[in-house]
Amino acid sequence: xxxxxxxxxxxxxxxxxxxxxxxxxxxxxxxxxxxxxxxxxxxxxxxxxxxxxxxxxxxxxxxxxxxxxxxxxxxxxxxxxxxxxxxxxxxxxxxxxxxxxxxxxxxxxxxxxxxxxxxxxxxxxxxxxxxxxxxxxxxxxxxxxxxxxxxxxxxxxxxxxxxxxxxxxxxxxxxxxxxxxxxxxxxxxxxxxxxxxxxxxxxxxxxxxxxxxxxxxxxxxxxxxxxxxxxxxxxxxxxxxxxxxxxxxxxxxxxxxxxxxxxxxxxxxxxxxxxxxxx
Length: 279
Description:
Layout: H1 2-12, H2 14-20, H3 25-46, H4 52-68, H5 74-86, H6 90-102, H7 112-133, H8 141-158, H9 160-165, H10 173-178, H11 189-210, H12 218-240, H13 254-278
């Protein structure tokens, strides 16, 4: 069971998986259960062709597990047990499932408000779930949401080509038109300006999230900050050459993640102490 959940998580993200190795064991176990749950639904809607029937079947199994614990699915049973133990709100999970379902129906987002609405379910509630796993105070909720939002928005920027090839566009179409960008698959000066505009929005979300870092105990912040730092590294790479997103998927190597983790292991306790006294 543990190997199956770990395998699902490991395949989902180099940054998340390797950053999670920096958590204490009991936290790492629950984070693995969360991301295994998130990933199995995400994979169904991201597959080509999309596995529509399987998505709805798995969603019904989730409700069955929630009602009487009889889904027979390891990922769902572990998630629901952890969900109740950690105090997740059922509406958070429902919001996540609704956003995943929207990927089966809605392909293009025209305004930033539409994109933000999608991100509430696809990422911000996951930030709230992580907040509960780390046993943070409710005052951390805004910052947890912002961290989920920041990471999701950078994914939209980084994966723009991949999304377009699946007929999706999360970066607001109306803003694209304002920058006179005719195609997100064509690299020109207008495209570069549009991408840098969106990267500045990501950096704003990330900066907001970091205002809450002082609420996270150092033993947990090492992993959280490492993941955030790797997203900022990715964003800086794209800011320097926005056209790179049309050539490759910008992702840090495992050794870079672990090196950043070591740096944070040595520096976070001091950084957190200084930040505390600045509040």
